[in-house]
Amino acid sequence: MDQTHSRALRRRLRGALAAGVAVLVAATAAAAQPPASPGVVQGDSLRTTRWHIASYLYLLNYGRYEQAGSEANIDYAARLGFNAVRFNLWWHEIFPDATSIKAGGNWSGLDHNVDYAIGKGLKVILTVCLRRPVGDGSVFTSGDCVVDSEGRVDSNWDKTTRMSFSSPRFGRAIRFFQQVGERYRDRQNAGHILAIAPLVTREAEIAYAHEKTEDFNPAFVAEFRSWLAGRYDRRIAALNAAWGREHAAFDQVRPPQTFSGPAGHDWYRFRDLKARQFVDSCCAALAALPGVARPYRVLLDYGNVGDPMSWRRGSISFAFHAANPMVWGIKHNDAHDYDQRYTGSLLGANALRLDRAAFNEWFYDRDKARYPGGDVVEDSCKEIQGHFDQGMNGVSYVGVHPPNKDLESIVQRLKQRGVWTAPAAKRLPDPGGAVRVKLSTLLDLHGWQVREKYFDPHFRAGRTQADVLIDRDFTEPLLPIVPPQDYGDRP
Fold first, then answer.
1. What is the distance between the alpha carbons of residues 4 and 307, in angstroms, rounded to a whole number?
2. What is the model's pLDDT at position 487?
3. Beta strand pairing call for 193-199 and 123-129
4. Residue 8: which CATH number?
5. What are the CA-CA distances from residue 355 to residues 47, 325, 350, 472 (Å)?
6. Is residue 224 part of a domain?
7. Is residue 44 scored above 90 in pLDDT?
8. Could you read off the pLDDT of 46-101 as tens digits, one per residue?
9. What is the value of pTM for the model shown?
10. Cis before residue 483, ω within 30 degrees of 0?
11. Domain of 375?
C-alpha cells in the first residue's frame, strides 16, 4: 500500500473512532513577538516525563453524554498505566445553539470527564475543536467558512465546518478557546492540566486541511491581495516582474494552486503568517485571563510535519508557529508504515532547538495488513520505541477503549522492555553539525523529495538520526493579534 493511500485510510479510521532530521523554521529577527504569558517555565520537569496519553476523541459523543462509558474508558487507561488523557471538546457540543449560548453552555459532561480523570491520577490535555455544524448559523454563516481550491465550503464526515482565518467573526472562535481556559482555570492552577490545544481543520488539527489547498474564501483572498500590495509597495508592476504575470491591478490577483515559484512562495508565506496569527491569538487570549497562577501550556497538533501533504496543511512550518513563547509542545501523527527515523528526526531535533516538548501518535488498527511486518503487537512496539528513540516526550495513543487485547499486549511488552517507564531522553544535537536548508528551497520540492534528498543519504549510510535545519528565509512582520469577540446569539 502506498504512503498516501495509507495516510488517507488512517484519517478515515480516525474519523470513525472519533465520530533523521530536525527542521527549524526560524522566526525572522525583524518579526515582533507577541507578549509572553508571565511565568512561562522553559525546561520544566514535565519535559523529562515520558507521557503515555490515552486519546479519547469523542467521549461526549456529540452532546449525548454517556457517563458510564466515559468512566469505563478512563478507568481502563488508568489501569493500563497511562499517565495522561486527551479529550477533544467541540464548540457545538458546549454551545449547540443560541439558547445554550444564553444559558452558559453544556459543560457538565466534560466537567465530569476531566474531574474523573484527575481523580484517577491522570493529567489532562484539552484539545479545543473550533468547528460547528454546516448551516448552524448561530455563531457564523457559510459566508464565513473556509473554501478550498475547487470552491467547496469546508466540511467533513461529521458535517462540521470552520471559519476562515480572515472572517471578521473569527474572534468568536478565539473567544471560545479562551472560555475553555476560563472554565478549567482552577484545574490548571492546581497542576492537573498538562496542555491545551486549538484545533480547526476537518482532521482536527491546527492549520489547513491536507486534501485540497485552502483558503479561497473571498475575505482570505482579499487579505492576501492587500498583503501583496504592501509587500510590493503598491506597485503592480513589481509584482508582475516577480511573478512573471500581467495583472492590471492587485484586485485581479488570484492565489496560485501550488507553492512553487515566486507566486507560490508568496501564497505559502501569507498562509503561514495567518496560521501563526491564529496561534498567537490563542496564546494572547489565554495570557489575558485573570487569576491564572500557572500559565497554560499550549500544544500545537498537526498532521505529519514532513509527508507529501505537509505543504497543503502548512505543517512543514511547525517551528515558525511554535516560536510563540507560550507554546510548550508540538504533536504530529505518523502512519504505521512511515519511517520513524525521518519523521522523528524532523520533529525531534527541531523541538530540541526550540526547547519544546515533542509528541507523536500511535493509532490502533485491528487489521494486521496495515502494519509493515503484519504483526499488530510487535510492529506497534517498534513504532512506539521509534518515537521515543527520536527524542519524543510522549506518544498519543488513539484506540484506548476496553477491551483491546492488542493494546494490553503492547503495553505489557513495552513495560517488559523498559520503554514504558523510562524517562524521556533528551535528543542530542548532531556532533557533526547540521545541514541548513532554506524554506523557499523546500517549497519547490514535491512528494517525499525532502526526505529523499536531505534525509535518506544519512540513513543509507547507517545513521539513525540526522539534523537538517530549515531556515525560514522570508522577512516580514507578524500579523496583529485577533482579539476574542463575543458571539452572542446571532452572527
1. 9
2. 84
3. parallel
4. 3.20.20.80
5. 9, 10, 8, 18
6. no
7. no
8. 888 999 999 987 655 555 678 898 999 999 999 999 999 999 999 999 998 888 88
9. 0.90
10. no
11. 3-216+255-471
